[in-house]
Amino acid sequence: xxxxxxxxxxxxxLWGKVEPTKETPEIMYQKGNDAYKNxxxxxxxxxxxxxxEEYPLSELAILAELGIADSHFSNEEYVEAELxxxxxxxxxxxxxxxxxxxxxxxxxxxxxxxxxxxxQTDTIKALKEFDRLVSRFPQSKLSFLAEKKISECRxxxxxxxxxxxxxxxxxxxxxxxxxxxxxxxxxxAGLGLDYKVAYFIxxxxxxxxxxxxxxxxxxxxxAKPLNSKY
Length: 230
Prior knowledge:
This protein has a domain at 23-75.
């Protein structure tokens, strides 16, 4: 057997045949990094995935996990990116890159925020992720960026509340409108809507009082029909 193996090795060497060598994690990771820089995000995911699966104990495996998440994010595959970042968060709860991962999780939702006349679920989720980052890592530079995003998210939520409140106001659904305006006054003060909201609260209450007076007058036993001669 030894002779046969030796003979095969000699024969391959004689004819210039080189046995295939397995790529190192460094080479695989570099391929993923190069693909990412060139905007070939699918290729980057493939390369990073190989590092993760074939060399799970390598120090580069953790960076490859981030590379997978970042590649999905840059490719605007936010659902896949969110899953990858969340997995990283759960698998490496003490990793030094946690502030970055939390910030990216917030951006996954922030980048999908709709206009104020649409559903604001992503705004709420983004706000939650940015709040978590600031609460857990208040000294991080990324927390400073997150605070700006928090203000923008709160602004969107406040403007949607006003949009809905004004919608009810125009349709004379004053109780529903008042609920929205008072929510803004309570939860979203200092965002540039204070004066406008105060006016509409006052005006809405005035119209509600007028409606009550009309209802009371109409139901009064002394009330007379408008066309009554007596």
